[in-house]
Structure formats: C-alpha cells, structure tokens
Design goal:
two-stranded antiparallel sheet; about 280 residues; 2 domains; Four Helix Bundle (Hemerythrin (Met), subunit A); mainly alpha; Helix Hairpins
Amino acid sequence: MLLSLKNKIFGYNNSKYENILDDPKSKIGQFLSNFITSLVVLFAFIFVFESIGTNEVTYKFELFVFDAFISIVFAGEYFYRLFNAKEKISFIANPIRVIDLFSFVPFFFGLLSVGDILKLLRLLRVLRVLRLVKKIPLTAGFIKALKDYIDEYKAVYILFFVILFIGSSFVYYFEKDVIGTKFTSIPITLWWGLVTMTTVGFGDMVPLTNLGRVFGSFLVFLGPLVLALASAVTIMVFMETSRNHEMTHKHHARSKHCHRCKSKNPKDANYCMICGEELNDQL
C-alpha cells in the first residue's frame, strides 16, 4: 500500500499538471494540499499562542517539535514541486515559490544562529501565512492585472508623495520654532503628514500655528481624494481579473476534454486532436 502510494506521488505523470498536488481530480493530491493548508492555519494559532505570557518558555520543546515538523513538511513540498517542475529556473523565480521558500528556510538557518539574528529568523516564520494566498483562485490573475495598471499606480502614488512632501515641509517650517513643538524635523513631520493624509489621525502631533493648521487642512482634504484614485484603480484591477477569470471558465465549459490524454478540444469536435480518442459528449 505504501509502495503504491509512493508510486502515485513520485511517479505522477500527467500532461496537464506538473505534480499531484496541483491535480484537482487526484484525491491524494487534494488531501495533501489541504493538509499543508491546515498546517498553515494551525501555525497561525500556535504563533499567537507562543506570544501569550510564558508559553514560549513553558512549552519550548513542544513548540520546537511542531516548528520542526511543519518546516520539514514545507521543505518536502517545495523540493517535490521543484523536482517535478519542467522549468526549474522559472519555478525558483516565481513569487509564489519564493513565499514557499521563506516558509521553511528561517527555521533551518535559525538552528545555526543566535542573538538578534535568531530573533529575526523566528519573526520571518510569520511569512508562512502568505501561503494561504495561493488558495485564492484569482491570485495569479490579480498579480498579472496589477502589472497592466502599473502606470496608473505610479501616477497616483507620485501625486500622493508630492502633496505629502510639500505640505509636510511647509508645516515643519511654520511649526519648528514654536516652544514645545513636536515637529522637530522633516522626517517626523512626514510621518505626521502620512498619518493625516490617510485619515488615521493618532493625535500625537497637532499644528499650533495658524499657517500650520491651514496647510494641515490641505493634507486632510487632499489625502482622501488621492487615496480614492488609488481605490478606483484597484477596483478596475479586480474587475478585469474577475472578467478574465469568468471568460476562462466559460472557455473551459465550452471545451471537450479528452479522458485519455486530458487535452482540450473544440466543443464541436468528435475526436481528440491529439490522440484521436472519440470524444462523444466528454465535457
């Protein structure tokens, strides 16, 4: 039984999918894929549990064992996918696979590190949660659509930065000589300007001069307008992604799939264009 399972996983051969984990029709592949996803969710709960009280010290061994187990599973999945990938360089450079890599590398490097480096590597474990993004069907299409709208995003954020920099600079020069002022430098004033333009408003810093308040008011009004432009671009990205996703599904629905070689054929085809298998009503 174990030998048969091994052959199904490591001897997987399908023209449509590179490995069994990506095959939606494979019960074993979907079980393993869902198991790995459940480990990510479980890690999120453990990561929070670890930060409560003295849990990190009290359950140090148990937490280490779980971290080691999850890292080994993620590493095994990564190298399994790499081994089966047809284009290995493209696989390694893929942003999704970079996320996969960071889900286990910090643990193994952490075994050889101490001090602040170890703390940083332990913190990087939180990147494992990004693996859940792969479960969102529209992720790949959304990333592609973002690239198509990169010029629009550049224009919006350049405009945001220009307003932020000019407004904050004026506020700094009007406020810097006021006794007890908190606007002690342009970087600190930029922080205040960013908080103001994004409508967060912590209230830790407020202009005291009339001119400072005037320019602060400009940031209050202009900030939401620029952010609205960014939101509008993002909505267009989502709409295009959703439209492309829907068109893809409609195309697949209109295609006949050959049960023998798994290839797609026109809906009016009677025989597979690849292997010649009779299609009948195979959808």
